[in-house]
Write a structure and sequence with these properties.
viral release from host cell, 4 domains, viral genome packaging, 14 helices, two-stranded antiparallel sheet, Phage tail protein, alpha+beta, Connector_podovirus
């Protein structure tokens, strides 16, 4: 792609993103107020408009809960296994391929357990609460081969093809010139770019990821702002998609996602205004509204309000009334305000999946209620779980494999195409979804045993295949499950032990007869 073509496509994508700016900005202002919604230093004193902390705390709980459900911290986030096409072609031989692929995945796991992956996922989950996130694996140094970066949503624009698939991601940053030169030491810059007096002058930097029309890889194109020279600072090519752009909920035909914060935004804004009005009403009831006779000796600008103060005034009564009097307004219904606020807070927590058991002074919460809360959360996440798993790990794992191969940490390249070799997300949510399917499988085996008898179960179920699917569904490591050769050896050892036990029992039973025969003789 030439620079002029890229500039036109990029300008169009950023123009299509403009209507989303205000929607996401409101979500950040009321739910994540400390976030810079419009860029570096654009938001000032946004917390002064916040009067309720329900949304600000629940969105952080949502991010931690989503990370725990998808990719728990300190655990391998995925494994490799034979894809559906490989299983169809290899049949029983796919089990051996799975063991080899798991060993390859285990060689990649240490690069996900350094802590950077966990931090990047949590930061991405905060943006997913609003709707759209981005994670970029970057090739690092020999000490840290892979670096994971969570890109702020306000810095990216996304383009899609005719089928709604991401094929263009533009990352726009404001960086100092020196930082840009440090990031791309071999880049080509304008002649005045190396001026020391302007080393810390900010510049607009575009890092664009463009999928090739023929589908053979992605181009990485780095360029300066539109006012700079029409050349690329640097460019490169990668076989795999270099950046993951997950969306929580997505409406067909739109490149950006909708998160729980956007769904709860009307209630969040209403709750914020209700808290503000309730605080004002409480302040009026506590302090009151005072009236004074103008033109008298009382001057409200000079007197001090406080205990033990003396106010000069002409009179405190008479025909005209006192110089200063309190006007009691109509009694505010603070109990109604508390009820409305409580309902709104409950709605926001439910939308953001904040299922923490609240403090309750009455009857303790039952186990069925706690289980119901957790089940409701799992069922709600299922709608977004499939999208998140398909848009994060099937993109991250192939890209990390390519980075490790280029850095020399993997001997051979591996093509993860989800057909021959697929990624399997290892998470509590995936295990829970598999648990329902495995429960049906276990029920079938139990019913076959009850109706046909234990000895007839092999007639209706392949126990080896059943146990293999249970181990796969529960994410049991392949190295702790015996393979076919090991099972044959174990079966032979068990048969040998049974023969030895039978021989020992026969000798024990024959011993009394031998002794009796000897005594008779």
């Amino acid at each position: 792609m030439e620079y002029a073509d890229l500039a036109r496509r990029r300008e169009q994508i950023w123009a299509l993103r403009a209507p989303w700016n205000d929607i996401y900005r409101q979500a950040y202002e009321f739910a994540i107020p400390h976030r810079r919604p419009g860029g570096q230093g654009a938001a000032k004193n946004v917390v002064d408009r916040i009067f309720d902390m329900t949304a600000t705390t629940s969105v952080m709980y949502f991010a931690g809960s989503l990370q725990r459900d998808l990719f728990p911290a300190g655990q391998p986030p995925f494994t490799l296994q034979s894809g559906p096409l490989a299983k169809l072609k290899l049949g029983a031989g796919a089990a051996r391929l799975d063991r080899e692929l798991e060993r390859i995945a285990m060689s990649m796991h240490p690069f996900f357990l350094t802590g950077e992956w966990d931090m990047a996922v949590h930061e991405c989950c905060i943006d997913l609460g609003v709707g759209t996130g981005a994670i970029l694996p970057v090739a690092g140094t020999a000490d840290q081969p892979v670096i994971f970066v969570a890109i702020p949503f306000d810095e990216i624009a996304v383009g899609t093809d005719g089928y709604g698939r991401v094929n263009f991601v533009s990352w726009r940053q404001r960086m100092e010139r020196q930082a840009i030169r440090d990031a791309f030491p071999r880049g080509r810059f304008p002649d005045d770019f190396g001026n020391r007096e302007k080393a810390y002058q900010p510049e607009t930097l575009f890092q664009d990821f463009v999928k090739r029309p023929d589908g053979r890889g992605w181009d990485f194109l780095v360029s300066l702002g539109e006012t700079r020279s029409g050349e690329f600072v640097t460019r490169s090519w990668s076989r795999t998609q270099p950046i993951a752009v997950p969306r929580y909920y997505r409406v067909p035909g739109e490149p950006y996602g909708r998160g729980p914060v956007l769904l709860a935004l009307p209630s969040i804004k209403t709750l914020n205004k209700a808290q503000e009005l309730a605080l004002k009403a409480a302040a009026i009831q506590m302090l009151g509204i005072w009236a004074y006779r103008s033109g008298g000796t009382f001057n409200p600008d000079t007197v001090r309000v406080g205990p033990g103060e003396f106010w000069p005034m002409q009179s405190t009564g008479g025909v005209l009334g006192p110089d200063v009097s309190r006007i009691d307004p109509a009694t505010g219904r603070l109990d109604v305000a508390r009820m409305v606020i409580g309902n709104l807070q409950a709605d926001i927590k439910q939308t953001l999946f904040d299922v923490r058991i609240p403090e309750y002074e009455g009857t303790p919460r039952s186990a069925s209620e706690i289980a119901g809360r957790l089940r409701q959360k799992a069922e709600t996440h299922i709608g977004a779980f499939g999208r998140l798993t398909n848009e994060i790990m099937p993109v991250i794992a192939p890209r990390v494999a390519e980075i490790l191969y280029d850095a020399g940490f993997m001997a051979t390249p591996i093509l993860i195409d989800q057909f021959l070799i697929a990624t399997s997300v290892q998470s509590p949510m995936a295990a829970a979804l598999n648990g329902e399917r495995l429960g049906n499988l276990a029920t079938y085996v139990e019913m076959a045993q009850a109706m046909a008898g234990p000895e007839m179960v092999p007639m209706y179920a392949h126990i080896d295949k059943v146990m293999a699917r249970i181990g796969e569904g529960l994410h049991v490591d392949k190295d702790v499950i015996p393979d076919e050769d090991e099972r044959n050896q174990i079966a032979a050892d068990m048969q040998q032990q049974r023969l030895q036990a039978m021989a020992a029992q026969a000798m024990q039973d024959a011993a009394p007869r031998v002794i009796e025969g000897a005594m008779t003789a």
